Structures are given as structure tokens and as C-alpha cells.
Amino acid sequence: MKIVKILFILTIGAWAFENEYSIENTNFTLSAVPYTSDERIFYNYNRLRLDYTLKEENWYINFIGDIDNYYGKEYLQSDEYLFSRTIKADTPFGIETHSHNYDGGELFGRIHRLNIGYNDETHRVVFGLQKITMGVGRIWTPTDLFNPRNPLALEPDQIFGAYALSYIYSPNKTTEIMGVVSQRSDKSYKYAGRLKGFVGFADIALDFLHSNDAQMIGYEIEGDLFDTGIEWRSEGGYFKDKILDKSFFEGIFGVDYGFQNGVTAALEWLHASQTYLPSEILSTQNSTLSGNRFLSSDYIGTSLSYDFNLMLQGSASMIFNLDDSSLFVSPVLVYSLDDETTISLGALLYIGDNQSEFGSFEHRYYLRLKKTF
To the nearest 5 percent, what fractions of the chain are helix, strand and coil? Predict the structure, then answer.
């Protein structure tokens, strides 16, 4: 009912705004062996998404809402699914409806984004549930403590929004000053800022963040390597983990390049001076530094993509743990049936011995059908 009320309020002012909307349905059929289970099972996940925007000159209101449906009795009863449902958005209000359970399935609604904003050549102000963009990494973004992507997830970029007021001041095309105030689930506040500019050879930014469970002083660098067309980047910083009483440095260095034959490649190295136990990582999933705690000190990540033709695209990402030599690989083939419909065949592959980070998991395979209306 809350989502219905929000949609009604947004629709009241539609007469004064330019309306834009899209409906997208994404369906996954997966084959997996859930954590702590010995049997391979099949289950289905479907997400119906409405993206609705009202615009009037430089002002806009954006709403993105999902209806999620999981189907598969064995999966819904697994420890993996039950644990995933304990991970909540770090917001002072709930963003999900109550779940509706039926025979073999579970259905619920979720607010993905809901914000009002103003944007011109110099100023950008956004208030509400939003994505705060920080960091320059392609695989890892250690300085992004609002919406960190998870490269091991089925959909790495499907991340909770932050309930925040953000402001960006751009006096010219190469300079940017950003400030963010975000309210958290415990009603405390998270503060962040960034100063970014072009300094001779690269775009450089200084970042900071303060919250009741973490602090960060960080940097971002991004530039062209001696005008070769190879883009290089680095980001990282010093972090204080107030929950587990640890301080550490964490950063990435990466390069990417688009070859003439259509192959686009990226390479990143992640280093963390502090490692964590599995129990420490699992018990702090809802904290600010949840995406910055690792079992090992060093990882190498790569990604490749190639368009075979106008209809068929392929990509693969890989993460290699340098400490225990285990490997995570995520290949996918995407075929475009038309401009609005794609079908994908992919896998999440875990390689290594049973005691290693990635080798302790079983392979997953999926078929995805995506349709936009």
C-alpha cells in the first residue's frame, strides 16, 4: 500500500511535467547447489521493474520500483536464501513490502530508487533514495561506501540505494565538488565529500567519509597512459573499521583498452593490508565497510567483452585470489532477439580446492530473459 500511495502522489503532478517511463521484466532460471546443501536444484527469479520520471525544465522526480518473485521450494528453504533476506538497505525506513508466500514461491515489492532533483551545467542536487557515485574502478570500488558493487553477485550492479541529500558543484568541465549527507537505518548520519579536478596528466579526486562505524580518507586517479589510448586508474584509501576495531589500507590499480577488433579488456589488482575471518565478514553484512572486508590480501580481476555481430555479444569476468590460487569466472553470451528483448546464457564458476575461497562453492548456471516495454 505504501508503494501505491507513493505512485499516486507522483501521478498528481504529472500534468505539469514531461512523463517518461519504461517497464522491464528480467527472468532468471538458475541451477545451483545452495550453501550447506549437497543437492543441485533449479529455481526461478523474476523481477518486474517500473522506471517512471517526471521532468519540468531542470527539475525531475524519479521512481524505480520492483516486484520480485522467487519460485522454488527447496531454494526458499535453503540457508543461502534465508541469509540473503536478512541483508537490508541501510535506510531509516523499510523499502520492501511484506512478503506474500504461496505454494513454492515468495513475492514482494521493493522501492529501488525514489528521489527529486535539480540539474544544470553548474549544480546538481538530489534528495531521496539514490545512487551515490564514487570511485573509478571497473571491478572493485573501495572508496564507494554508499552503493558498492559486488563483482561476485549474479547482478553486480543491482544494489540498494542510499537515503541522502547530495550536492555537486561544477564550476567548470574539469572540476567537481561533492557533498553527501545520508541517514542510516539506525537513524545516525553518514557524511562524505569529494574534491575532483584535472591535474596535468589525470583526473584526481580526494575523498572522505565519516559515520558511526567507519571512517575513510581516500583518493581517485584516472587518466590516459601517455596518449596510447590505454586508460589507467587507481583508487583507495585508509579505512577505520570501528565495529571490529581495525584500521587498514585498501586500493586498486587497473587499466583498460578497446582493441580495433572490437575486444574491450580491463585488468585490476586489489590489495588490502587487513584480512578478515569468514565469521567477521558474515556478521557485518549490514555495515558501512561490508564491501571492503576480504579473506585475502591480493586479488587480480579481469573482464573481456566482444561483439560477435549486431545480435550476439559475449563477455567474461574473472577474479583470481593470489593467496590461495582459487578462481571465480563469470562468462555470459547475450543474444538480442530485437531491440527490446535479449536472452542470455551464463555461469558463475568457482575453481580451486575445497579449502580455498572460491573452490568451496559449487558452479551455478543460468538462463536469463529480459524484456523492455
Answer: 10, 55, 35
pLDDT of the residue at 15: 53
pLDDT at residue 181 tops 80: yes
d(CA 161, CA 66): 13
Supply angle C-alpha 209, 186, 248, rounded to 5: 35
Strand partners, 175: 172
DSSP per-residue letters across 117-146: EEE-SSEEEEEEEEPPP----SS--TT--S
Residues 299 and 269 sit within 8 Å (Cβ to Cβ): yes
Residues near 342 by beta carbon (within 8 Å), at least 6 away in sequence: 334, 335, 336, 368, 369, 370
C-alpha distances (whole Å) from 3 to each of 8, 97, 161, 191 are 9, 8, 16, 28
- Quote the CA–CA distance of 322 and 320 in Å, as a whole number: 6
Burial 90-115, CB ≥16 within 10 A → b, else e? bbeeebbbeeeeeeebbebbbbbbbb
| pLDDT for the residue numbered 35 | 83
CA 302/CA 211 separation, integer angstroms? 32
pLDDT at 9: 58
268 burial level (CB within 10 Å; 0-12, 13-18, 19+): buried
Burial of 170 (0-12, 13-18, 19+ CB in 10 A): middle
Q: Give the separation between CA 339 and CA 180, rounded to whole angstroms.
A: 37
Question: Cα–Cα distance between 229 and 146 in angstroms, integer?
Answer: 31
> Which secondary structure element, helix H or strand E, spans residue 22, and what is its range?
strand 18-32
Place of cell 581517485: 220
Distance CA 346, CA 361 (A): 17
Angle at Cα 138 formed by Cα 334 and Cα 128, nearest 5°? Answer: 95
CA-wise closest residue to 334 among 303, 373, 363, 367: 367
Share above pLDDT 90 across residues of the chain, in percent, rounded to a whole number: 91
Can you spell out the DSSP letters for 97-111?
PPPEEETTEEEEEEE
